[in-house]
Design a protein that fits this description.
By secondary structure, the protein is α/β, with parallel strands linked by helices. It has 5 helices and 10 strands. The chain has a single domain (35-175), classed as Rossmann fold. It is globular.
């Protein structure tokens, strides 16, 4: 997605060979025009998959998920990372390790919002090692929901997340695939045109 690549090149900050900071438009300050376009792109990619719900994880996945939900006209459910006074019973849960925060947390979704009749699209802002994605897939599996695929805003292709999800049999659609962050420079995966 060209607009997203431009944003990454112009506003993203490479902090290390592993970390790209995109808080100017994606996961702190949010560019609503970009989010709208991201939602439209995910809707286009998954429009024939019978999506009934989108699931994501709080908080950075919510904006692109809501825009995709709007475009597909389906509800969005987000997994909570923090304990909630109102979310205590009938929970679908999974443990997720965050390499960015160096902490393991339990994510949770109420089983009243996800069930066996659902066909879900899982959306997240980043795909690196795939821990959040696998956690969301585990929650969908507990609900006996079908996973149509993963919509990823930015994929760090040099990390094992995509390969892990593909090996598990999942479809992965990433709007920007980063090959490298070496030497402080973002290098995108060159897509082969057929």
């Amino acid at each position: 997605m060209e607009l997203l690549r431009q944003k990454i090149e112009n506003e993203g900050i490479v902090l290390s060979n592993q970390v790209l900071k995109v808080d100017a438009f994606l996961n702190h300050q949010i560019d609503p025009v970009l989010m709208h376009e991201i939602g439209q792109e995910f809707a286009k990619l998954f429009k024939h998959d019978g999506i009934t719900k989108i699931i994501t994880i709080e908080s950075s996945g919510i904006a692109p998920a809501v825009m995709a939900g709007l475009a597909l006209q389906v509800p969005v459910v987000f997994a909570r990372k923090r304990q909630s006074l109102t979310l205590t019973e009938n929970l679908l849960t999974a443990s997720v390790y965050s390499f960015t925060k160096k902490v393991e947390s339990t994510i949770a979704v109420s089983n009243t919002h996800l069930g066996e009749k659902d066909c879900v699209l899982i959306i997240d802002d980043f795909l690196a090692n795939g821990e959040a994605a696998k956690g969301l897939a585990a929650i969908a599996k507990q609900a006996k929901a079908k996973v149509a695929g993963f919509g990823i805003v930015i994929e760090k292709s040099f990390q094992p997340g995509r390969d892990a999800l593909v090996q598990m049999g999942y479809r992965v659609e990433s709007l920007a695939r980063i090959e490298s962050l070496e030497e402080g420079k973002v290098t995108f995966v060159r897509e082969v045109q057929s």
